[in-house]
Write a structure and sequence with these properties.
With 127 residues, this protein is mainly alpha-helical. The protein has four helices and no strands. The protein starts with a helix and ends with a helix.
């Protein structure tokens, strides 16, 4: 993962945008009439589909692999979290976008931490 501020800001922007978009659309689609397990899987699929164009567009500006992996993961996580939350009770559009955005930032942090751990351990695995 990149550590230069331009790319870190781009990752943050991409993940927050993808999470908010997926969260808001998931709140429009899902409601209390959905089974939670079904909503989770459908929300994950919808999140991946919605995140792909955003990842492709922002990948040209901020690096394809640096954006693609966290944004697609954000789409899956935000879709699952918001759809499951919406299946338990109505979620407002703004609150769903906020939950999705927080999911995106959390995924970005987890991705950066996982990358740091893997890079640190890589010499042991490759020798």
């Amino acid at each position: 993962m990149e550590t230069r501020p331009y790319f870190v800001f781009g990752d943050l922007l991409a993940n927050a945008t993808a999470g908010a978009l997926v969260g808001a659309i998931s709140a429009l689609i899902f409601g209390p009439s959905w089974n939670m397990l079904v909503a989770m899987f459908v929300g994950m699929a919808i999140g991946m589909v919605l995140s792909l164009p955003l990842a492709l567009g922002l990948g040209a500006l901020f690096g394809a692999m640096e954006v693609m992996v966290p944004v697609m993961t954000t789409g899956m996580v935000a879709g699952m979290v918001v759809s499951m939350r919406a299946s338990m009770g109505d979620v407002g559009l703004g609150r769903a976008a906020e939950i999705g955005m927080m999911s995106g930032v959390g995924v970005m942090i987890a991705t950066y931490l996982a990358n740091a751990v893997i890079k640190r351990r890589a010499p042991k695995w490759t020798q």
